[in-house]
Write a structure and sequence with these properties.
Thermophilic metalloprotease-like, single chain, eight-stranded antiparallel β-sheet, four-stranded parallel β-sheet, alpha+beta, 401 residues, globular
Length: 401
């Protein structure tokens, strides 16, 4: 299967370079991931140069270094970065670079037994610079999946290692539409369909979305100019790109002050390498005032205390059951995939391009953006107009608009 994996890796890399980030001739590209992702990262780098990139910079991270910091670093080491790291991200923004980030599931053994409070506090402090780059639409970027033996062991623990990795690659091939004769055409057709749904939702001018299901009775208020987006976005310079591959969501930016009620997650959530199971959150006045879970709650509580906006919502996204991820039985323990299998909300920074210019000052601001899944076939989503009319949006996982 090694030759088959190599072929799939090359096709996935080409999809991320050309369709995802849409790397332009003469651009500088930053390719990032963990050490275990180096095979896909190298294929991405080769694809960038074939696309005419001027320079490709590789950025590797190592979870064992994170473990050492949590175990042995002083309090000042947590969430610290030297000044030149901030300058570097600012330079990436100012030079209008492209970025491609590849992700998989974390090895649960690496961070096991560590202080969850320190883990929750230990975030990348350059996040605010990245947020600025995204808000200003300075960079064309994409995030994609990177199948590795570690991830395969997490998703398919019942299989032998080699068989587990083969199975994960088969699933990623299907999810990313690499099994189609023309993956770009297949993605374009799917995204056109989602954009049509987004347009119909935007035309309704909903004042709020109401989620109701087992453990969930949540109302998410929207801003007057909130509109729904799917498919992709453009940089300020007009470069179209798709930030997430795969992407099966229709999303918008909510009013950060008008989320009320309680919600229970429908899938596990990975936060800082720790899996949060059985998550439940209660909102009051737009703020997450109570965060509980069967396991891992302390880590999410720590992230939600990062800044004033980290306990408020920056995104609400709807996902129907016709997407390829939700039809598979696998839980991937990776937000990139799991969030595209179920409707979700995100604590933290909001998205300016999903509201009108007159309301960007009301968009939530934070260094973090953490999606967690709240949708399933049992969760009914209803749109509520300013006049109180209730309009079915999702029921049984199928669009009602």
């Amino acid at each position: 299967m090694a030759d088959l994996r190599d072929g799939l890796r090359a096709r996935l890399a080409d999809l991320l370079v050309g369709f995802g980030a849409n790397v332009q001739p003469g651009q500088i590209v930053v390719v990032s991931g963990e050490l275990d992702d180096r095979g896909l990262m190298r294929a991405v780098a080769a694809g960038c140069y074939r696309a005419g990139a001027l320079h490709v910079e590789m950025e590797y991270s190592d979870p064992y270094v994170k473990r050492a910091r949590i175990l042995y670093g002083g309090d000042g080491s947590i969430a610290y970065a030297p000044s030149w790291e901030f300058d570097r991200v600012a330079g990436i923004r100012d030079h209008r670079c492209a970025t491609i980030h590849v992700v998989g599931a974390a090895d649960p053994a690496v961070l096991a037994g560590l202080d969850p409070v320190r883990l929750g506090r230990d975030r990348n402090p350059t996040g605010r610079e990245w947020v600025k780059a995204i808000i200003e639409r300075s960079i064309n970027w994409s995030i994609g999946p990177s199948p590795t033996p570690v991830w395969a062991a997490v998703t398919h623990p019942q299989l032998e290692p080699d068989a587990a990795l083969d199975q994960l690659w088969k699933e990623i091939e299907h999810i990313c539409r690499l099994d189609e004769p023309d993956p770009v055409a297949a993605w374009t057709e799917r995204m056109d369909s989602l954009m049509s749904v987004a347009d119909r939702l935007s035309e309704r001018r909903f004042d709020a979305l109401h989620f109701q299901g087992p453990g969930t009775d949540l109302t998410v208020g929207l801003l007057p100019s909130s509109h729904f987006i799917a498919g992709g976005i453009e940089t300020a310079a007009g470069i179209p790109h798709r930030p997430n591959l795969p992407s099966e969501e229709v999303f918008t930016t909510p009013d950060p002050e008008r989320t009320e009620g309680h919600v229970r997650s429908t899938k596990p959530l990975d936060v800082a390498g720790i899996v949060v199971n059985g998550l439940s959150v209660r909102f009051d006045g737009g703020r997450a005032v109570q965060i509980d879970a069967d396991s891992g709650a302390e880590v999410l509580r720590g992230r939600a205390a990062t800044d004033d906006g980290s306990s408020r919502l920056g995104e609400v996204a709807l996902v129907d059951r016709s997407g390829r991820i939700g039809q598979l039985p696998t839980v991937y323990f990776q937000t990139l995939l799991d969030e595209n299998a179920a409707s979700h909300i995100a604590l933290g920074n909001g998205l300016d391009w999903a509201v009108g210019d007159e309301h960007t000052d009301r968009v939530n601001r934070s260094e973090i953006h953490i999606d967690f899944m709240i949708g399933s076939d049992e969760v009914v989503v209803t749109g509520v107009t300013a006049g109180g009319e209730r309009v079915p949006v999702l029921s049984g996982g199928e669009w009602q608009v």
